[in-house]
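Exercise 7. Predict the joint structure of the components listed below.
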Amino acid sequence: QLQLLESGPRLVKPSETLSLTCTVSGASTGSSSYYWGWIRQPPGKGLEWIANMYYNGRTYYNPSLESRVTIYVDTSRNQFSLKVGSVTAADTAVYYCARSYAGGSRSGTFDVWGQGTMVTVSS
Amino acid sequence: DIQMTQSPSTLSASVGDRVTITCRASQSISRWLAWYQQKPGKAPNLLIYKASNLESGVPSRFSGSGSETEFTLTISGLQPDDFATYYCQQYNGFSWTFGQGTEVAIK
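Solution:
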């Protein structure tokens, strides 16, 4: 059964870099059938797509975050990761990793999500 | 960027009611729209894909319709388990955007 699990520091200082990793079990990050991505949700607010990555290394970013965000994959460990630089309190959120279909009628939908990890930006 | 606008932001309803949520896209997205349900403290759960296709395991009281820029999610016969927040999400040209969400609360 496919599972995604986020890991990383829960507390990050302002101006530093937030780093998270998503470990995938039950599927391969090297599959051409899916994108692997990150979505976040500030406390009490809605969902915001951050970035997606394809197995061939192609990356796609939310334009509002693109200058501070990097997504990359480690297929040998079946993991993908997110870095958000120069963080502020506005980056405080639950961060979810998720799988998105890359083709077919489900193209673009996020069908499997991690449980989410709360990251707080504070000194 | 494509913006997604949901309405209403909150609605109050009773068990058994028929509920409709609207999602509007700032430009045409054909039928590349999904709907999700989210409960407090949980990750979103996919309900509908490509505007009107029911995800496996989702009760048939959920249905979706629409195309281009206007879409609806309907819950026919609201059940206690359906009180949650619902999000639409578009996919167009390697860009993904969520609506701001609609909370369905108990009247």
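Discussion. Chain A is about 0% helix and 50% strand.
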